[in-house]
């Protein structure tokens, strides 16, 4: 049986490796760094739970991924606009799960997936790489030329109660948002911006001060974290026999930047295409095209609405029995989004030319 070669040991690459190995394939994963998740330093990230009716942890289980990492459910979060609005959004089931990122971080998603891959018989070659043409699956993460947002912030120890706050204010996060996340004595504050990247640290300092005016912060042993997000609209999911997964395939949400679930899914689908002998491009197009288009429309509306975005969003959300239904609608390319998409696409090509491959 042919040895399957995967370039990159992130969630998408390891997801593919685990599925292939559990189906009896020999799998070699090549990771240029000396550990998984090297670009993360303990960041807390949200594993979104709204794009599908199936709980994301059940979805993971169906893709051969077990929960051997810290994964804390949140069924509520506060959303603030930096002025007068401070609303609590609550759901009947977890809106998201918080996970830690980073290969040197105990309990992280990255370490959990690495352990599962090794247990399945995958060979991970650290500090080694191969050419793109020699790889069956490319899972190398974001491509710098397609970066549309960056974030910076801190992680820290704390005695604060568990909490999640999203702060939407262009004065502290231009066209993006800032957030405070605390779970089990572990905290993270970050700001995510979509323009004026050179001043990201200044925006973070303003976000930290603003969040401190909302809740009393208790921060100890802080460490700096940060990253970037990329997306590729109109790109290829495969080239010849090589499949592109996760952010290497441009599979990322341009609205709020959630991408772990789609990364794991893309890795699984790429693996199944090898096992079943199916066309990965066709499968990926069906799975992700509408999601990516919805992200463009959401980003377009988010920026066009300006300072009224939070009042408008909250007003629309009140029409739904559960906020999860609202989030699911705006992430799944609803009828209104299909009508708006041609305009949003033209706008996106002007404002974010780097994401149009």
Structural summary, described in words:
The chain has 357 residues and is of the alpha/beta class. Strand 15 (238-239) and strand 16 form a beta hairpin. Among the domains are: 4-37 and 46-70 and 100-142 and 230-288, FAD/NAD(P)-binding domain (3-Layer(bba) Sandwich); 289-355, no CATH class. The longest helix has 26 residues, at 280-305. Helix content is 34%, strand content 24%.
In short:
By secondary structure, the protein is an alpha/beta fold. Among the domains are: 4-37 and 46-70 and 100-142 and 230-288, FAD/NAD(P)-binding domain, CATH 3.50.50; 289-355, no CATH class. It has nine helices and 16 strands.
- N-C termini distance: 35 Å
Mean pLDDT: 93
Alpha plus pi helix count:
9
* Oligomeric state of the chains present here: single chain
Strand content: 15-25%
The poorly predicted ranges are: none
Structural class: alpha/beta
Strand order of the largest sheet: 6-5-11-12-13-10-14
Whole-angstrom Rg: 20 Å
Element order, helices and strands?
Answer: EHEEHEEEEHEEEEEEHEEEHHHHH
The CATH class of the domain at 4-37 and 46-70 and 100-142 and 230-288, by name, is: Alpha Beta
CATH superfamily of the domain at 4-37 and 46-70 and 100-142 and 230-288: FAD/NAD(P)-binding domain
